[in-house]
Amino acid sequence: MDREPSSASIATRAAHAGGGAHGDARSLAPPIDLSTTFERDAGGEYSGGFIYARDDNPNRRALESALAELEGGVAAAAFASGSAAAMTVFQALRPGDHVVAAHDSYYSIRQMLDDVFVPWGLTVTYADCSDLDALAGALRPSTRIVFIETPSNPMMRVTDIAGAAILAHEAGALLVCDNTLPTPVLQRPLEHGADLVVHATTKYLAGNHDTMGGALVGARHDELWQRIRAQQRLGGAIPSPFASWLTLRGVTSLVPRVRWQNQSALAIARFLADHPAVRDVLCPDLPSHPQHAIAAKQSAGSGGLFSFRLRGGAEKALSVASRLGLFRRATSFGGPESLVEHRASVEGAASKTPDDLLRLAIGLEESTDLIADLAQALEAG
Ligand SMILES: Cc1ncc(COP(=O)(O)O)c(C=O)c1O
User: Fold this and answer.
1) What is the pTM of this model?
2) Mean pLDDT of 163-174
């Protein structure tokens, strides 16, 4: 499989992530290799490089190689979902280990820690990691992992990755960063000192609302990475060859999609910030965002997702969501269609998300059309 020289820009490298011409037919689209098992040579070797598909297979290996390359890591491990990827990080720890997690990490990850890993023996402290003093205060001698998500979903708080890495390392812990929202197009946490990157590839990387997946990207082949690989192989929470293929296909168009979605999100956030029905816009790309300076220092934009709060509380928020025409009322983000979501009612009774908040996932439509849709819904709602 041919690979582009790594000096090319990220757009070029991503566009060529399919790996060039394959096989005797010189196919530019990579073939999907469904085989679960691979033949051994008469002499006992596996000269094809694969043994059994749970351990490794051609489509997953191609995806992992592309993701490692885009994030600037030494290796990547692909999983069946973003949650399976995050779960593998915690499974790689030992009972008694302590985790500091951002208090507003994606709610399913907090639920996973509380319902699965605390009973299993991890201790967890939630901290506002956008405040480095609060993060420092949560660290203990037994802390192994600091788990941040920046920007966070859906509150869009920003954590200083380099600052968090210094604090974690001084305490003998590793920094794990969920980079699902900005993607490597806009932010590469390993360049700022993070040790491990988490992705829900379900979102922007696959990019079409049609494929679940997750990934971890490691900065080093260290002990944690060895345990992650063992967990991936032994647990088998892996993407199928087809899911790997779809995700890699998504990667080839990732850069223009994310740049477009980021630009549209900024135009829409500016429109909303000036609207009298809007109480606040939570978008790190706006200079009014409390952590705008940190966001600008460590990323080229916060991506296509942001939230806004309405004057008039939950009733107004739900009414605006119900009147939108182009925005689909659905969870998730990263696909071609723009989505609107009232997060508090999706997250349930334990949600800390304000009930006047709507989250927008900007798709690939023209931003002027989306602004017109929001304008009519805000007037009517
Ligand atoms: C930031 C973030 N991390 C992880 C996940 C979990 O990914 P998945 O739904 O693929 O399990 C999500 C899902 O929305 C997410 O938004």
Assistant:
1) 0.96
2) 98
Whether 106 is catalytic is: yes
User: 33, 97, 160, 178: which one is catalytic?
Assistant: 178
Q: Quick one: 74 exposed, middle or buried, by C-beta within 10 A (0-12, 13-18, 19+)? A: middle
Whole-number Å distance between alpha carbons of 72 and 270: 32
Q: What is the maximum span of the chain, computed from C-alpha positions, in angstroms?
A: 75
Per the annotation, the verdict on 178 as an active-site residue is yes
Residue 321, amino acid: A
What's the gap in Å between 350 CA and the centre of ligand 1?
Answer: 18
Tens of pLDDT, residues 274-316: 999 999 999 999 999 999 999 999 999 999 999 999 999 999 9
- CA–CA gap between residue 15 and residue 146 (Å, rounded): 33
Distance CA 307, CA 300 (A): 19
CA dist., res. 132 & res. 159, Å (int): 8
**What share of the chain in percent tops pLDDT 90?**
96
In sequence order, the 6+-apart residues with CB closer than 8 A to the CB of 290 are none
Domains located in the chain, CATH noted: 10-252 (3.40.640.10), 254-380 (3.90.1150.10)
- Inter-residue contact 145 to 169 (CB < 8 Å): no
Token output for 124: 């967890």
Are 99 and 148 spatial neighbours (Cβ–Cβ below 8 Å)? no
Which tens digit of pLDDT belongs to each residue from 36-92? 999 999 999 999 999 999 999 999 999 999 999 999 999 999 999 999 999 999 999
Q: Report which secondary-structure segment, H or E, holds 176.
A: strand 174-178
Q: Write down the pLDDT at residue 380.
A: 84
> How far, in Å, is the centroid of ligand 1 from the Cα of 107?
9
